[in-house]
Amino acid sequence: MLKLSQNKLQGQLFPKKWNLTSLLFLYLDNNFFSGQLLPGLLTSSYLKVLNLSDNSISGKLPDWIGDFSSLSFLVASRNLFKGPIPVGFCRLVELTVLDLSWNSLSDKIPPCFNLSSLRYLSLHKNELSGPLPRALYRSSSLVTLDIGDNKLSGEIPKWINLLPNLRFLLLKGNNFVGSIPFQLCQLHNISILDLSFNSISGLIPSCLNDIPFGHRKAHNQTFENVIFDWSASISFYYRYRGIHRLDQHVDDLFNSPHVVEIEFISKSRPNSYKGSNVDLMAGIDFSRNRLTGPIPSEIGFLSDIHALNLSHNQLNGSIPRTFSNMKQIESLDLSNNKLSGGIPPDLVQLNFLSMFLVANNNLSGHAPDRKAQFATFDASSYEGNPFLCGLPLQENCRRSTSAVSDPNLGDPGETDDLFKDSFLETFVPSYVVAFLGVVAFIYFNFTCRMIFLFIEAKLSSSR
User: 2-317 architecture in CATH?
Assistant: First the structure.
């Protein structure tokens, strides 16, 4: 085992043959290594763990890495690698963790992937293109699939339900089209589902409430053996392989050289979740797509979800009253849609809500009472709804002639009261002015006066 992590080492890696024939674990992360990878490490044919992350290594990923047939953990994130993922990676059938994120890798994901042992795959922040390869469906042990911020295209594949252990599906920032497949609803262990910044259209599936986002009981025994800090304890690696004993000082030596990381935007800012912290977040982000139709009321029964972002779509209809059941929600963004009707007053019961946005819709009626968390939201949460009134907005509901109340959500008599007030305030003064105007016209007009006098004289003579 060799750990040189978190130093200031520099220069080129593996410039000549290493005589480390028994090497199992090699950590070179967080240094200043540069240049291309040369095959001097090939003598270490039993290599299990290779961590090259956070350096300045450039060039293409070498095909000869596929000769490490026993490699389980390969982490090369945050470097300067470019070009395609080599076909040689298809020979790494023992891989459990593959992290190539934050590079400049391009071209398609190799269709020959046969990574049946893979549990963590991160290709985040590259320039990969093409559709998701169907070969990924063989990775039935996959827990994390993070391919966000690439140039991938096509539809979200229907075979996605063949990944039953998936907990984190991050597809944001690509060119995916088509609708959200109902097969996503069959991923009963999902905690984070991020499809934002794509071109996905159609309706939001009502079956999403079949996924108990964040519900701990939903996580089966599979996750008790999943390591989110893969190298926090080398002894775990041996336990995982059936060897139960390793010296404690070795366990301490390899403490946290690489932590699997999940990035998810919540409360309008990106947050990173590492290690056991990933269990603290459960969320859906469908923002900045082309979704249409109403928001399914079934979404409101996701009682353990922490973040829901449906903003910047073309959703219509009303905000479901069932949203008051999302007792754990902290961030709710429904802004920039075509939602109408009133805001359900029961939402004031959401005691953990720290961000609430419904701006730029067609909502009407009274803003929620300024109670509990809703007392902390300012006008920016509601702006861009011309028929919405009440604090913190400046529009007074009593004087508004445009406010329309939703009879299913608010007081049925509120609209009538507003109409009566407006009618009385405008009709009575207008009537008085018109009457006085007629009287004045008749009184001061000589011809009219003579006509009335003539009529009065005729009436008198007829008697």
Answer: Alpha-Beta Horseshoe (3.80)
